[in-house]
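ok trying this again, last paste got cut off
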Amino acid sequence: MDIKAQITTAVEKITKDPKMQEQFKKEPVKTVEQILGVDLPDDVLNKVVDGVKAKISVDKASGAVDALKKLF
């Protein structure tokens, strides 16, 4: 299983849907399971959830930096 691809898929779906974002904040594991549509072992699922959280954080930070660059 390609964990990186699973993370990318989950991030794309979560970032495009505000309701999914709220659900992910409350229940990240359940949300990722729902998005991927597969039952993964807990260790794999936790890696995917951690990867999604990290990717979303990086994307938000990148967006903030880009916004600051536009000011100068």
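PB: full thing came through this time. DSSP finds four helices and no strands in the chain.
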